[in-house]
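Render this sequence as a predicted structure.
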Amino acid sequence: MAAAKLADMKDLNAMEDVKKRRWGFVQFFFVLAVVLCVLVYTPRVFLHTPYGIEFFAPNSTPSSTRAMHVVSNAEEDDGMVILDNQVRSPCSTMRNHTICCDRSDFNTDVCFMAGDVRTDAASLSLLLFPPRAAAPPDATTAEEERVRPYTRKWERWIMGRVQEVRLRVARPEEAAGHRCDVRHDAPALVMTAGGYTGNFFHAFSDGLLPAWVTVQHLRRRVVLAVLSYNPWWAGTFGEIISGLSGYHVVDLLNDKRTHCFPGAIVGTRFHGILTVDPARLRDNKTVVDFHRLLADVYDTADDDHPKAPETTTIQQQPPARRPRLGIVSRKGTRVIENQAAVARLAAAVGFDVDILETANGAPLSAVYAAVSACDVLVGVHGADLTKFLFLRPGRAALVQVAPLGVSAIARDCFGGPSARMGLHYEQYEVLGRESSLSRRYAPDDAVVADPETAKKSGGWDLVARVYLGGQNVSLDLGRFGETLARLHARALRLQRQETPPP
């Protein structure tokens, strides 16, 4: 009997142990379920992704780097990316997840989008998706702006040929129809390779330099989304494009995928013809800094060339090199008809002379190498003088030959900008007898004798047709020789200042 009771007690204790173990498992799974819920749902409540819509990101291209956090200028925190680098901008107080446009400039409109920005190829639009909590309360209204991203908004004809981009705050329910095909970890800059940018001068003055002014503070962490993207533009300026952005260019008109960005800039800032105004930038950059970009992407480092081994043998100082002068050789109009004689004169003065052919198909890297080696660059007014940007600031000189009737235009296009880059600038004013127009018009005709009076009556048509499009020059070697002698003496003086003592 006692043995039976002892067995019953053992069975009861065993059952109690089983119940305790089962209750322990229930408690464990309950606690585990609570922890998993906290881990899964807490980020959805308190955090949002850089794109502000879905916790689980839509299908996209993975990024190898951390996404930028774009903030409005009013929230200038360490580690945050500021879209608008312009001081006193009306967009300096824009809020996150909003669109702000600065239309105060005579030349250009620029808009900024802070937040989850997605392309819509069908309507050539950029859609801004605010977080659900910040979505517009009235679903029937939507903020929209329209921009033609080119820097000549005062010129109706050419602006009509630049595509208009729509910017709109989207409703939350539109997100499902605009899931990301490609997700970028840097904001977009929407610009155009159209307009007049097939011309070398306009490619820089209207396009590349304004783009640099607008995004240089992002240090290549920007995606260029380009309208009128074309092989000539991409092939000619590929190195500069890579200097502006560390990402592949998006062909905005032909790429039908939905691209997603953590922000966008639509349009580019314009400070003037080939000009960077440091007073208008938060970081006070100048056109010399733009030249440094060109030097970075084009310069051939001295380290690429083998150096002679060092020796302790005492040698005489090598003879000073002759200063180098480049002559921009135009074709068509505004040609230097006695170019060969000018080149011989420059050599006699003491220059090594390079004839720099234009439109010869040479890559821009080769053009940069030839021009940057010059102490003096000489050329008649024209787009190719934009290459003064390749000269060495504080060292080189630019001589612009101004044909009849274009003196003021020449100075505005290249005189002021080159001086602001630290170049020595001289303008050689062509006289009536040096112009080919003297063979077409009588000596007392206003076109030759008094171009300013002729322009008042003939207007821009006369300037374009006659002074720019119908004139060559033959330089007076005596007059021009004085200019060359002065510049040669300057180049030698700079050489002596740079040569270390023996």
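Summary. The radius of gyration is 33 Å. The mean pLDDT is 85.
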